[in-house]
Specification:
Blueprint lengths: L36 E4 L1 E2 L10 E2 L1 H13 L3 E3 L1 H9 L6 E6 L5 H12 L5 E4 L22 H9 L3 E4 L12 H19 L5 E3 L7 H9 L4 E3 L15 E2 L6 H14 L22
Parallel strand pairs: 1-5, 1-10, 2-3, 4-5, 5-6, 6-7, 8-9
Length: about 280
């Protein structure tokens, strides 16, 4: 029954205070970890580099030293994600090397081990001992052989798949897509005797159909470049690192990373129809 607006009764008792739960906003919230994953390709002395995929050994050495001075340690992506799930990834940086160039063993591995780092190298089991024919402007660079892949495993590096032949997967038919994803995983596991848990999209091009195929092939994670709304465990964003990335440029990329990359959700990318999303890179 509502009160009579024309009558004000004399107060008898003070109104009992209403007890409310403390707002959840007042509780401290832990900021989500935004994994910082760096994307390298070839490590070699060079005079021409039309696709900006080569870092000299001296530059890589200085970049790894820069990480170490800031209390950061480079690890493979699989380790990064496991440590993130355990809440221990704040001082870790993912290091990836695309294409599986032979110079990874010759130049990158000694520097990584010198600085106490590990990395994931994404290789092409359909081009073992071949070259980077997908880069028409060159220069030609040899790729890892089976022995080179096993040497990388022996050095403590993670091996992931970059597909079989370095194709734009968003332009392939379903059977080719299955071979490039599931077939490459099986081939790598035959070579290494270990599970191949990670995949890397050639050229960084990815759409919902390709993400679904990678998940169906049994990969635990996949690396992209700038996957936009597809960002998730099966479309991890990465930052390209090149010869021009001095300490100042790395600092800026680190600083801008939370603004340019969305926080990583806990689940995989949602499967739905969509268009390809690509970023700069090979």
């Amino acid at each position: 029954m509502s009160a009579d607006p024309t009558h004000t009764p004399a107060p008898v008792f003070a109104a009992a205070p209403v007890t409310r739960a403390a707002p959840t906003a007042s509780l401290p919230r832990r900021r989500p970890v935004r994994p910082w994953v760096l994307m390298y390709h070839s490590v070699a002395e060079h005079t021409e580099d039309p696709y900006n995929v080569t870092v000299s050994p001296g530059r890589l050495d200085r970049q790894l030293r820069w990480l170490r001075r800031r209390g950061l340690r480079g690890v493979g992506v699989g380790e990064l994600l496991r440590e993130r799930a355990a809440g221990r990834a704040d001082r870790l940086v993912g290091l990836t090397f695309d294409d599986g160039y032979a110079d990874f063993i010759e130049e990158a591995v000694p520097l990584l081990r010198r600085h106490g780092c590990a990395a994931t190298v994404f290789v092409l089991p359909g081009r073992l001992g071949g070259g980077n024919e997908w880069d028409p402007l060159g220069p030609r660079k040899p790729l890892l052989t089976e022995a080179g892949i096993r040497a990388a495993v022996g050095a403590g590096m993670e091996i992931g798949s970059h597909g079989l032949l370095h194709l734009d997967l968003t332009r392939t038919d379903d059977e080719t897509l299955r071979r490039e994803t599931e077939g490459s995983r099986l081939a790598l596991e035959e070579i290494t005797g270990r599970p191949a848990r990670g995949f890397c999209y050639p050229y960084g091009t990815v759409d919902h159909r390709v993400v679904r195929a990678v998940r169906a092939a049994g990969y635990e994670y996949a690396c992209a470049i700038d996957p936009g709304p597809l960002t998730g465990v099966h479309a991890l964003p990465r930052v390209h690192v090149g010869e021009e990335d001095t300490a100042l440029r790395l600092y800026a990329k680190r600083l801008l990373h939370p603004l340019r990359r969305r926080a990583l959700p806990s689940g995989p990318a949602a499967p739905a129809a969509g268009t390809p999303l690509a970023g700069a890179g090979r």
